[in-house]
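Re-running NAD(P)-binding protein to confirm reproducibility after the cluster update. Everything else is unchanged from the original entry.
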Amino acid sequence: MATYVVTGASRGIGLELVKQLLARGDVVVAAVRDPSKASNLNALNAANLHVIKLDVEKPETIKEAAATLEKQFSSIDCLINNAGVLGSLAKTSKADASDIAWVHKVNVLGPLAVTQALLPLIKKGKKKLIANISSTLGSIGDKEQYMENDDARRGNAFAVGGLAYKMSKAALNMQTMSLAAELKDDGITVICYCPGWVITDMGNSGSEAFDGKAAPTLSAEDSIKCQLKLIDSADLSKSGKYFAHTGEPLPW
Ligand SMILES: NC(=O)c1ccc[n+]([C@@H]2O[C@H](COP(=O)([O-])OP(=O)(O)OC[C@H]3O[C@@H](n4cnc5c(N)ncnc54)[C@H](OP(=O)(O)O)[C@@H]3O)[C@@H](O)[C@H]2O)c1
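Result of re-run:
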């Protein structure tokens, strides 16, 4: 039994992570923007579930959440920085600066602030793992090989819109690598991974970038089964690495 913190736990991948972690007996802190509206989460009604308010865009809620957790827990084993937004899918030539700034606030500065606030508790944990949920869309490396064998998407990741999202995940990857290097001597593992193209609100919206010619086929349930294998196997030897949900390494 370990203690996990999952951000963005109200729906999609975050909610399914919470469900599967609880099902195997872990203690889960589910961080959401508005606990009163997280009806699917509250319906889980599990003894090992702790729902807290945390909006990654609002530093005061991160500070308050960290203070609450310091009182309730002596340590945290694993932080999963899952909360994220997609932003505009406009073509790069039409990308909007304010959209790019907002997406970076949520997808890059959010995980950094949450990690910084929870680091004292993570240092006291047994597993000492920080997992940042990234995307293959943040990869500047080999797109041909990693676009999931889907002709509609193959080689298209640079050409389609969503610059804010793609840049934010590339920046999150750099954050992962930098933190991993810095925290290695503390025994803390930091990884990032793509969950696959998953059927969630965000995953479904993503098909717009491909003019509806491609859509997600991976269920959240199956993605999370794979993610948990990756998380369970993560140790210092994997720190600073970028994975597909299958555990295959991804090119930066
Ligand atoms: N689905 C995919 O195919 C896919 C592929 C690659 C990577 N990812 C990544 O996987 C993660 C989860 O995606 P998803 O598909 O589950 O997306 P989703 O269905 O759109 O859910 C996003 C979650 O993030 C939360 N969130 C958004 N802004 C937040 C904020 N400021 N503070 C706290 N929570 C916030 C949402 O909370 P509210 O309910 O309050 O809005 C929601 O719980 C994201 O980091 C995403 O980039 C997803």
